[in-house]
From TrEMBL:
<keyword id="KW-1015">Disulfide bond</keyword>
<feature type="transmembrane region" description="Helical">
    <location>
        <begin position="189"/>
        <end position="209"/>
    </location>
</feature>
<dbReference type="Pfam" id="PF00001">
    <property type="entry name" value="7tm_1"/>
</dbReference>
<feature type="domain" description="G-protein coupled receptors family 1 profile">
    <location>
        <begin position="88"/>
        <end position="336"/>
    </location>
</feature>
<comment type="function">
    <text>G-protein coupled receptor that plays a role in the regulation of circadian rhythms and energy metabolism. Participates in maintaining proper circadian gene expression in the suprachiasmatic nucleus (SCN), the locus of the master circadian clock in the brain. May function as a coordinator of aging-associated metabolic dysfunction, stress response, DNA integrity management, and eventual senescence. Upon binding to adropin, modulates mitochondrial energy metabolism via the p44/42-PDK4 signaling pathway, influencing pyruvate dehydrogenase activity.</text>
</comment>
<dbReference type="GO" id="GO:0005929">
    <property type="term" value="C:cilium"/>
</dbReference>
<feature type="compositionally biased region" description="Polar residues">
    <location>
        <begin position="45"/>
        <end position="61"/>
    </location>
</feature>
<keyword id="KW-0472">Membrane</keyword>
<keyword id="KW-0297">G-protein coupled receptor</keyword>
<dbReference type="GO" id="GO:0005886">
    <property type="term" value="C:plasma membrane"/>
</dbReference>
<dbReference type="GO" id="GO:0004930">
    <property type="term" value="F:G protein-coupled receptor activity"/>
</dbReference>
<keyword id="KW-1003">Cell membrane</keyword>
<feature type="transmembrane region" description="Helical">
    <location>
        <begin position="316"/>
        <end position="338"/>
    </location>
</feature>
<dbReference type="InterPro" id="IPR000276">
    <property type="entry name" value="GPCR_Rhodpsn"/>
</dbReference>
<feature type="transmembrane region" description="Helical">
    <location>
        <begin position="157"/>
        <end position="177"/>
    </location>
</feature>
<feature type="transmembrane region" description="Helical">
    <location>
        <begin position="229"/>
        <end position="249"/>
    </location>
</feature>
<keyword id="KW-0807">Transducer</keyword>
Amino acid sequence: MVYAQTTDNTKSSLLSTLFTLPIYPNSSENSTLLAGSPTPADCSQDGSSPRLSSLQRNASRPSYELTPGETVTLSMAFGVLWLVSVFGNALVCLVIHRSRRTQSTTNYFVVAMACADLLLSLGWAPFTLLQVASGQWMLSDTACRLVRYIQHLAPGVQVYVLLSICVDRFYTIVYPLSFKVSREKAKRMIVASWILDAAFVSPCLFFYGSNPEGHCNFFLPDTWDGVTYGIAHLVLGFLFPTVLIALFYHRVVKYIWRIGTDGRTVRRTMNIVPRTKVKTIKMFLALNGVFLLTWAPFYVAQLWHPGGAGSRQEALLFAAVTWVSFSSAASKPTLYSIHNANFRRGMRETFCMSSMKCYRSNAYTITTSSRMAKKNYVGIVEIPAPAKTVTKESIYDSFDREAKEKKLAWPINTNPPNTFV
């Protein structure tokens, strides 16, 4: 009986040692327990068993690994959005590059947003999905910083490009003669948006990073520097341009439409605005609404997110926020194809093969001067008119007084009577 009781005490002391060491690896209590317990035969040089070291490594790793069902659902959702985003935005750039009719000032801004979406799709989305699905960050610390930098860069560029489009549409419709955004000005505005936002989000290279346990931070750190930058990023990078966009479009909409006396009916004003420009305004209103609604959770989550780096709740919130934000990149090409007839015609022209005629109707005259149109025989064939030779006799023949008199309502006497007295 005494031997059995001694064995039970030894087992209980060993169990307490195994469960307390991963929590307090350097405390004095563990050393006392180890001294009072029998030493195992298989020990390492530092006095800890291999089982204890493995428990320590497993306890320090992040615990946000998803279930197989969650991983499959997230992978399918991200895969569909990724395909639509990459294919659609690449098609937008290709159509605008090949079609002369779509090479307007506004479409320069559209290409800039498509490039930002392509950067987001290729430089951020695959690595984020890999981290959330596998439960750890398997790349280097520099890759973690670059991926998070791209995540902050792309929406900041797009929101200021949308502000530039808003300014262009405002002066084109409300004040068409006072200011005009030319192609050179549009290019400068786009370059300024990229450079300023690249400098503004540069602190992300210092706030983010990966730890030795294999975790790349999902959100900004909960320090004073991180919170201060998060507030500045929310106000200057999202709220301020959003307010300006709303004010400009409110003025444009008020210039085009007016609300009836009953407060329900919406009618056109007396201001003459072409129908094509009105359709463009509707398209950009939908585009701004989708962009601002899908990216608002990302900016808010940088300040309000569950604590505990690498927790399961934080990983699920990050996956939901990134899925909603990334849907904006896939929705833009869809909106272009729905609201813009020139873009649809450009897509048809792009997909036509060189051995067939795309459109035989003379009504379809998109880009008769483009290379693809000439290759596919698109447009109206311009036949030079025969040159007219002007002679002296043709000049006198062109004016026939007798033929002109027959077409008059009443004849005119060539020699009126002399009424002189």
